[in-house]
């Protein structure tokens, strides 16, 4: 103990610097599924530290999910847990898929009305219609739109 203290006193008086060398270095690597950029693609992280990755989807793609290295995804930023060994972050980008259904009809005053619905789930539009046929039945009390019936003004109401 006295020897360490003597060495420390001599070192301080002579102007030498004492520096703690960091812990072991580990590699955080990434694997990408789909189209996008992971930045950085890999990183060398000191034991006990965290890596922060920025996940940017390519045009026409969106970030689906990311996992690995005990991390957490917030927005487009993935922060690993404290690194204790080499590990891999996997990132999934998925293609944007949107379905549009457009309907045009004339209201009771002769005004043309266009309606467009956009959804990522084609089943959200209800039953399918082909060949210009109506997917709903006809009604004497209104115009048919799918299975909904809109009352006509002044027709038996």
Short synopsis of the structure:
By secondary structure, the protein is mainly beta. It has 1 helix and 12 strands; from the N terminus they run αββββββββββββ.
Characteristic key phrases:
157 residues; mainly beta; Ubiquitin-like (UB roll); 4-stranded antiparallel sheet; 12 strands; disordered C terminus
Strand content: 35-45%
CATH architecture heading of the largest domain: Roll
| The level-1 CATH class of the largest domain | Alpha Beta
Q: Major β-sheet, in short? A: 4 strands, mixed
Any idea of the CATH topology of the largest domain?
Answer: Ubiquitin-like (UB roll)
- Count of domain modules: 2
Q: Would you count the extended β strands for me? A: 12
Task: Give the overall shape.
Answer: rod-shaped
Order of helices and strands: HEEEEEEEEEEEE
How large is the count of helical segments? 1
Question: What strand order characterises the main sheet?
Answer: 3-1-8-5
The percent range for helix content is: under 10%
Q: What is the oligomer described by this structure?
A: single chain
Task: State the secondary-structure class.
Answer: mainly beta
Unreliable stretches (pLDDT < 50, length at least 5) are 129-157
The end-to-end distance, rounded to whole angstroms, is: 102 Å
Radius of gyration: 32 Å
Mean pLDDT: 77
């Amino acid at each position: 103990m006295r020897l360490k203290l003597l060495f420390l006193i001599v070192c301080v008086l002579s102007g030498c610097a004492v520096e703690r060398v960091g812990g072991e270095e580990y590699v955080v690597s990434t694997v990408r599924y789909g189209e996008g950029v992971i930045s950085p693609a890999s990183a060398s992280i000191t034991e006990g530290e965290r890596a922060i990755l920025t996940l940017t989807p390519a045009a026409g793609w969106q970030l689906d999910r990311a996992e690995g290295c005990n991390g957490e995804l917030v927005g487009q930023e993935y922060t690993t847990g404290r690194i204790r060994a080499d590990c891999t972050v996997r990132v999934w980008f998925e293609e944007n898929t949107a379905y549009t259904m457009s309907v045009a009809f004339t209201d009771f005053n002769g005004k043309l009305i266009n309606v467009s619905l956009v959804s990522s789930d084609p089943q959200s539009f209800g039953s399918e219609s082909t060949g210009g046929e109506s997917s709903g039945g006809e009604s004497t009390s209104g115009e048919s739109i799918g299975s909904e019936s809109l009352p006509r003004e002044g027709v038996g109401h």
